[in-house]
Specification:
The complex is a heterotrimer of chains A (180), B (306) and C (445). Chain A is α/β, with parallel strands linked by helices. In chain A, 27% of the residues lie in helices and 28% in strands. Chain A is built from three helices and eight strands, in the order E-H-E-H-E-E-H-E-E-E-E. In chain A, helix 3 links the parallel strand 4 and strand 5. Chain A starts with a strand and ends in a 5-residue tail after the last strand. Chain C is an alpha/beta fold. In chain C, helix 2 runs parallel beside helix 3 and helix 8 packs parallel to helix 9. Chain C is globular. The chains are: A alpha/beta (180), B alpha/beta (306), C alpha/beta (445). Chains in contact: A-B, B-C. The interface between B and C is medium-sized, with 24 and 17 residues.
């Protein structure tokens, strides 16, 4: 049983707002860059970069980060994570990095992403932008920029579907255990 | 996903599993290009290298791979251990397991030893060479190197030259490359290439000039001096004259041919120095790739539910 | 002590008998075999049977009677295994005469001939005497020693065959090793004629087999194990056959394992030479595929070969080229087999599975039951000058076997110390129900 929480327009409006918030908080785009977490975060990071370009008329670097080697749940996951590309084609030292992910849940992915970033260099600062915050943090992690807060229960699943993956832009909330 | 907790040979791997290892190796090669060449993914695990045969390059490669994955590494070298005092193979293995080994990397002069250990031990057993059976990580790194240079393995003409009968590297490569769809040729004296090998899906040549025509890849094997005394070939001079890789012979291959060698090389015998140091050689890259492939193997094995 | 085996299916090729009937045993000897056909009218107890009395003596003859109901079972002369390694003296950790003979009777064998590759080697009368004495004390069946051909099995000097025969040796063999030197083999065949004993040859050209551990072929290549070509056996079979013809000595070829050897033996028999041959159950039951996975339980010398060889061996058994089925029972300690394939000792612990594996030949129509009894009892008896018969007056060596019940082979439960068998877990029929050795009943659940 699934319910559509966000449609294509909702997603676009949220991203536009977030792009404004990012440039407002950082007073422009100086030493700013975006790094998307594989896979969902990567597409969103690119979209945010485009929107920021429209607002500030400046291009900022975008990278993608695979966190498979930094996860803390290697032995308990049912299936081993597929390793994807890490492509950060710029020096991260002294830059302000906006980490971008689609859904913020326990916070463990973000922790792994921070470890991965710090192995790449010494960023001046790391901020977090997520499209959906569904609560249930297990670590003291907080997003700086949020598209939407969706309160969920642990038996539910939040999925962000994007055009870049060949689907329609939307966010759905699924109750698990009903479908098979 | 790999299905077995151990890597015993290419024979036991499916094409999907081989490709999974090669794809993962690409990601690890990336890591090796960074300043911090280490990832924390297998932190807290223990790797034990148990080498019954001397080997600096393979052992160092595995040791480095294990460390880059953040495991703790112990080297268990036979001459310095109680095996000399007559401890049985099984007892040595159980002792190593009792020390908490998660990975046991074993090289032994007797075929089937990794298989025996894999049955008896809970740890993941990686075959670093068992007698004349297999040396799977070598074949995987060779396939990775070919894929990197030629974009694919399927359909390529690949020649393996030398002592096929006694070479575990040759065997593993034969299995791997045929599985990936390459057209494999073997070149060497009849005493070193048993007839039945043709049943493995390869074509056998006894003359370099015939076998090297139009090949995309030439893989040279080290000729072992010990074989000379046992009637396999009369002298290294004769061997070199007939089956050594010279520039003349190499010119029969395709223009963009690559030359490989698992090392260590007998310069001037099976391969000339100009080729070994020349532009067609990828021998040193094989070494770098070996590190990435071994990291990939350990990472993927760690993810197999036991 | 009298024993009456009732209503069994008696098969005794020495007398040409194949009937339902009874056998009466008295004081360790066969008294009489009564075919039910001759008694078709009166189904009562045979008239000669004295009245029963519990444990008392009647007229000096003990009349305590044990009746064994053998309905639905075969009753055959006790099997004779002319190729067994009992390991004692010297290798008692692998097997002893006591445990080996216990395994033998469990397998239906009432006589075993033990090979001389013990420690010390049985190449002199003292060791022969020891074996005979130990067997008399602890053996559960008859044990007949086979002496070595050469001193120390070194292949250089002949042993004192005459003296050893007097002490009890029934044949001579360097088994475990061939006699590589053709001159010595020739002399052995010539010399043995004086004593009327066969020379049993382990045919293997050591220079060709070198450190091979399995059959040579595509499988040995893919397993990375050194192979032994079939020619290693065939070359020596041919050589020994020619020497047998030259010397007119008695040659018996041990553990035939290849199609080529069967053909050579068939040809020489046509020429009328005094050559006999044996094979073992694993050579008509398993191929080299059993070695896959580096299972040392399938490591045996000569090695397991191919389907073609199995077919040829079955043909050879059927047409009489191969006279005997022996076990080459080779027990080893568990730790010795639990190691690198290259270094594990060769051998299968075969006494307790031989009969049931051989029964499959009867099921498949390769042999009749009578022919099977020839291969496992009568022919070995003829070659070694023993009995192998249910004739009146013979020793009561009798095997009663159940061919209907299917049983799982459980190596852990073997009476032999050697649990090394590739047949562990197999479901087989044809296990002995009772084995009677010189009148002594051996039975188990």
């Amino acid at each position: 049983m699934s319910k559509e929480f966000f449609n294509k327009k909702d997603i676009d409006r949220a991203l536009t707002r977030m792009a404004h918030e990012i440039t407002e908080k950082n007073k422009g785009t100086e030493r700013l860059c975006l790094v998307g977490i594989q896979r969902g975060g990567v597409h969103l990071a690119k979209r945010l970069a485009s929107k920021i370009k429209v607002i500030e008329k400046k291009e900022i670097p975008v990278g993608s980060l695979d966190i498979a080697f930094y996860r803390d749940d290697l032995s308990i996951r049912k299936e081993q994570t597929i390793v994807r590309k890490t492509d950060v084609p710029f020096e991260v030292t002294d830059l302000k990095i906006i980490l971008v992910d689609d859904v913020l849940f326990t916070g463990r992915s973000i922790r792994a992403a921070m470890d991965a970033l710090i192995d790449l260099g010494r960023p001046a600062a790391i901020q977090l932008a997520v499209l959906i915050d569904r609560g249930h943090r297990e670590l003291p992690i907080k997003a700086d920029y949020v598209g939407k807060n969706i309160p969920t229960s642990l038996s539910e699943n939040v999925e962000v579907q994007l055009e870049e993956e060949g689907l329609e832009d939307r966010v759905i909330l699924e109750k698990m255990g009903f479908e098979e | 996903m790999l299905t077995e907790k151990d890597l015993l040979g290419i024979k036991e791997l499916s094409v999907e599993e081989i490709n999974l290892i090669l794809d993962s190796a690409a990601a690890f090669k990336d890591v090796l290009g960074r300043d911090i060449k280490k990832v924390p993914t297998l932190r807290g695990k223990t790797t034990v290298n148990v080498f019954f045969e001397p080997s600096t390059r393979t052992r160092t490669s595995f040791e480095l791979a294990a460390k880059r994955l953040s495991t703790d590494v112990i080297n268990f070298s036979v001459p310095t251990s109680s095996v000399v005092k007559g401890e049985s193979l099984i007892d040595t293995a159980l002792t190593v397991q009792a020390l908490g080994a998660d990975f046991i990397i074993i090289r032994h002069f007797s075929a089937g030893v990794p298989h025996l250990l894999a049955k008896k031990l809970k740890a993941s057993v990686i075959n670093a060479g068992d007698g004349t059976n297999e040396h799977p990580t070598q074949a995987l790194l060779d396939a990775f190197t070919i894929k990197e240079k030629k974009e694919k393995v399927e359909g390529l003409n690949i020649a393996i030259v030398g002592d096929i009968a006694h070479s575990r590297v040759a065997k593993s490569n034969i299995y791997c490359l045929t599985k990936l769809g390459a057209k494999v040729r073997l070149i060497g004296p009849p005493t070193l290439i048993p007839e039945e090998t043709e049943d493995l899906g390869v074509v056998v040549f006894h003359k370099m000039e015939d076998g090297l025509k139009n090949v995309d890849v030439v893989m040279m094997l080290r000729i072992q001096m010990e074989r000379q005394g046992k009637g396999f070939f009369p002298s290294t001079e004769e061997y070199s004259k007939n089956w050594g890789l010279t520039l003349d012979r190499l010119s029969l291959a395709k223009g963009d041919v690559i030359v490989m060698h698992p090392g260590p090389m007998n310069r001037g015998i099976e391969i000339s120095s100009e080729i070994a140091d020349g532009p067609r050689s990828v021998i040193l890259e094989q070494v770098t790739n070996g590190l990435a492939v071994r990291m990939a193997v350990m990472y993927l094995l760690a993810g197999v539910k036991k | 002590m009298r024993i009456l085996i009732k209503e069994g299916h008696i098969v005794d090729p020495s007398q040409g008998i194949d009937v339902i009937g009874d056998i009466l045993i008295e004081d360790g000897k066969i008294k009489e075999v009564i075919s039910q056909k001759s008694d078709v009218r009166s189904r009562k107890a045979p008239p000669h049977q004295p009245p029963l009395s519990k444990g008392g003596i009647k007229g000096g003859v003990s009349s305590e009677l044990r009746t064994i109901a053998a309905e639905g079972m075969f009753v055959i002369p006790g099997l004779i295994d002319m190729h067994v390694h009992l390991r004692e003296p010297g290798y008692e950790y692998k097997e002893t005469i006591k445990t080996g003979t216990a395994a033998a009777i469990k397998g239906g064998f009432t006589t075993v001939c033990c090979m001389p590759n013990t420690y010390p080697i049985n190449d002199n009368a003292s060791v022969t005497e020891f074996i005979i004495r130990k067997a008399a004390l602890e053996g559960l069946c008859t044990v007949l020693p086979i002496g070595a051909i050469t001193k120390g099995q070194k292949g250089e000097e002949l042993v004192e065959m005459g003296t050893m025969k007097d002490q009890g040796c029934v044949a001579f063999s360097d088994d475990g090793l061939p006699v590589m030197n053709s001159l010595i083999m020739r002399r052995a065949l010539e010399y043995s004629k004086a004593f009327g004993v066969p020379i049993i040859s382990h045919c293997e050209d050591l220079t060709l087999s070198e450190d091979g551990v399995m059959s040579e072929g595509l499988l040995s290549i893919t397993l990375g194990l050194k192979g032994v070509p079939a020619e290693a056996e065939q070359i020596m079979v041919f050589r020994d056959i020619l020497l047998a013809e030259l010397t007119r000595g008695r040659l018996h070829i041990a553990h035939v394992s290849t199609a080529g050897s069967v053909k050579l033996i068939r040809d020489v028999k046509k020429r009328g030479a005094n050559v006999t041959a044996e094979t073992c159950p694993h050579y008509f039951s398993l191929t080299e595929d059993s070695v896959k996975g580096y299972d040392t339980n399938a490591k045996v010398n000569p090695p397991l070969r191919t389907k073609k060889d199995i077919e040829a061996i079955k043909e050879g058994l059927k047409d009489g080229t191969i006279d005997v089925i022996a076990t080459d029972h080779a027990p080893h300690n568990r730790d010795e087999k639990l190691r690198e394939f290259d270094f594990a000792p060769s051998g299968i612990s075969g006494l307790e599975t031989a009969l049931s594996l051989s029964m499959k030949l009867v099921d498949e129509g390769v042999l009749t039951m009578s022919q099977l009894v020839e291969k496992m009892s009568l022919n070995p008896a003829r070659i070694l000058g023993l009995n192998g018969t249910l004739k009146s007056g013979a020793d009561a060596d009798i095997t009663i076997l159940d061919t209907k019940k299917e049983v799982r082979v459980e190596a852990e439960k073997f009476a032999s110390k050697g649990k090394n068998t590739p047949f562990d877990g197999w479901m087989l029929k044809g296990f002995p129900f009772i084995t009677i050795s010189k009148g002594r009943i051996n039975e188990w659940q």
